[in-house]
From TrEMBL:
Pfam families: SBP_bac_8
Region feature Disordered, mapped onto this chain: 26-64
Organism per entry: Cohnella suwonensis
Name of the molecule in the record: Extracellular solute-binding protein
UniProt biased composition (Low complexity): 28-54
Record CDD domains: PBP2_Maltose_binding_like
InterPro entries membership: SBP
């Protein structure tokens, strides 16, 4: 086994524990998000788990005349159609896939569910779980709780557990890394200062050294967190302790603002599709992106690699990490059928399909160690970045952060606003929104 492959295998084997061992809160340096978590056990063998799963699926009978609506993002719809067709062939339950972006699904279900026009099954990032549970729009993952828990990484199961109740069926774990075009820049930069230097000679004739979705807080969090900022204290559970305008966060926002000198465009213009077009055409050397971008770049024939994000002031970069999964709407007319689909769509076999087609990193422990995954050197950079990632807080108040943070970042980037003033205003907005929902 060569060195790269050995590293890949080692990293994937540890993926079950990566999220729960990720970056520490700056005001709780001695504790990680999983400090109080019980040790993982090996009480279930793969064969026992498979037998339990088959027995459960045999016992759970779908309702007569059941049909399902499942929401999925446009870019992933074709893949889920494959899964839905196979499910229909096995269970004789029609499934319609409708396009709704994953991050928008919980908000949409809050409105559409009571009106009887929402999805039976939704797919969303775990940070929306607290809001969903508070709104009463999800059913527990009760019937498949044991098999879900035994098959998936502890961290992914915890991500979809709220107040000791499991709601989700994990599908994938993720963070983002530094994609680099090897034909333009053979070795990935280690620091943002290196990127600033590289841009001095590379940026010309519509070429850019670096791009990311500028004011999308999911990606921009790294700039605030790496020097010492954080969203909520108490390992993401204390909404009264907001660290987005502390000294570290302000220092990071200054670096963020400095990068406009090498990316002179409006924040709204740095979209996923724009980045993809520039990267595949050789006009973008470095792209901050996630594993979901791998399949398209491979298909386009780009000679690229993936590395951990650049450090800031000598500190290892702290990215956001997350878990995505399925959940059943509490408004569904067919809860048994919806649970069967959520289980079916989140099995090892389908998680491997998502990996092959879309580059999603499996939450299923066996899928994560499958040779199909471990043989791909591109995942090494993403999994290295996982070591320093921090899980998005899942408390309901997290829903008040995204818009306020994006507005502050836009003010800093597009309007040249003083970072401290912009972040102070963002924290003020978050606090006011939190107070209004109590």
């Amino acid at each position: 086994m060569n060195k790269t492959k050995a590293l890949s295998v080692s990293l994937v084997l540890s993926m079950a524990f990566v999220l729960s061992a990720c970056g520490k809160n700056n005001n709780e340096a001695s504790s990680s998000p999983s400090a109080s978590a019980p040790a993982a056990t090996e009480s279930s063998s793969p064969s026992a788990s498979a037998s339990a799963s088959e027995a459960a699926e045999e016992d759970l009978k779908p309702e007569d005349g059941a049909s399902l609506v499942v929401w999925e993002s446009k870019e992933f719809r074709a893949n889920l159609e494959k899964v839905a067709q196979a499910f229909t062939a096995e269970y004789n339950i029609p499934v319609k896939i409708e396009e709704v972006n994953e991050p928008d699904q919980i908000n949409k279900l809050v409105n559409d569910g009571p009106a009887g026009v929402g999805a039976d099954v939704v797919i969303f990032p775990h940070d929306n779980l607290g809001k969903a549970v508070a709104a009463g729009i999800l059913l527990e993952n009760d019937y498949f709780q044991d098999v879900t828990t035994s098959e998936n990484s502890e961290a992914s199961v915890k991500a979809f557990t709220f107040k000791d109740v499991l709601y989700g069926y994990p599908r994938s774990v993720e963070t983002y890394g530094l994609f680099y075009n090897k034909d333009l820049i053979p070795e990935p930069p280690k620091t943002y200062d290196e990127i600033l230097e590289f841009a001095k000679t590379f940026n010309k004739d519509g070429q850019y050294a670096l791009m990311w979705e500028i004011t999308n807080f999911y990606y921009a969090y790294q700039f605030l967190a790496t020097p010492g900022g954080y969203v909520f204290g108490g390992n993401g559970s204390d909404a009264n302790d907001i660290g987005l305008n502390n000294e570290g966060a302000i220092k990071g926002a200054q670096m963020f603002q400095k990068l406009k000198s090498i990316l002179p465009m409006k924040a709204a213009d740095a979209t996923f599709d724009v980045k993809k077009g520039l990267f595949t055409s050789g006009k973008l050397a470095l792209d901050i992106n996630g594993p979901w971008a791998i399949a398209d770049l491979k298909a386009a024939g780009v000679n690229f690699g993936i590395a951990p994000l650049p450090s800031i002031d000598g500190k290892a970069n702290v990215s956001f990490s997350g878990v995505k999964g399925f959940a059943v709407s509490s408004f569904t007319k067919y809860p048994n059928a919806a649970k069967l689909f959520s289980r079916y769509a989140s099995t090892k076999e389908n998680q491997l399909l998502y990996y092959k087609d879309l580059g999603f990193l499996p939450s299923n422990k066996e899928a994560a160690t499958d040779p199909v995954v471990t043989a791909d050197p591109l995942i090494v950079g993403i999994l290295e970045q996982f070591k320093n990632s921090y899980p998005m807080p899942a408390i309901p108040e997290m829903g008040n952060v995204w818009g306020a943070a994006a507005a502050a970042l836009t003010d800093i980037w597009d309007n040249g606003k003083d970072p401290k003033e912009a972040l102070d205003n963002a924290v003020k907005q978050i606090k006011e929104a939190n107070a209004a929902t109590k």
